[in-house]
Design brief:
heterodimer; A: 111 residues; seven-stranded mixed β-sheet; four-stranded antiparallel β-sheet; 0% helix; globular; B: 113 residues; mainly beta; six-stranded mixed β-sheet; 58% strand
Chain lengths: 111, 113
Amino acid sequence: EAQVTQNPRYLITVTGKKLTVTCSQNMNHEYMSWYRQDPGLGLRQIYYSMNVEVTDKGDVPEGYKVSRKEKRNFPLILESPSPNQTSLYFCASSSTGNGYTFGSGTRLTVV
Amino acid sequence: AQSVTQLDSQVPVFEEAPVELRCNYSSSVSVYLFWYVQYPNQGLQLLLKYLSGSTLVKGINGFEAEFNKSQTSFHLRKPSVHISDTAEYFCAVSTTNAGKSTFGDGTTLTVKP
């Protein structure tokens, strides 16, 4: 089944404790992206990647890191999480012009 | 730079009535246009897309959208809605290399019996 898999689905952590949210796609898509969703703000793009080793900032990159060492994986790293990063996070992948396929989301709470 | 404005944050409608969800966009470069649907506690699912060609595009679940270049709009329509269409709908634009994407704030469609 074609899908984007992100883990974990739920995560509660404390301020300052580094964490990684994993994302993997099995569709051989070139493009991958991370979004955060907050009530009333829609989805905001954090980072995106056009291919292996090619990444660029989205609209809200501060406090986040990404890497694309393999085509299928695109982890999101929070080096020192803060409470304002409490949000619902989505990973997505796409091939040119086909729209994104989204993962099921990761609900992160930073206390 | 690009932006998306969804003109209605909430749209209540009765079952079997028609509905239109409005979306305007701006961009300094060529873009692709999309509508996504998000059901409660789920990820987003692609409804339809406009890349080029015919300005009327049809998607899943009976939805369609019309691209209007002069008005920079991409409104979503359905002639007769069902209770199961209750969800949040997002309009989005992507640069033609599918990298940079911008979403609207979403429109909550509530279909009442």
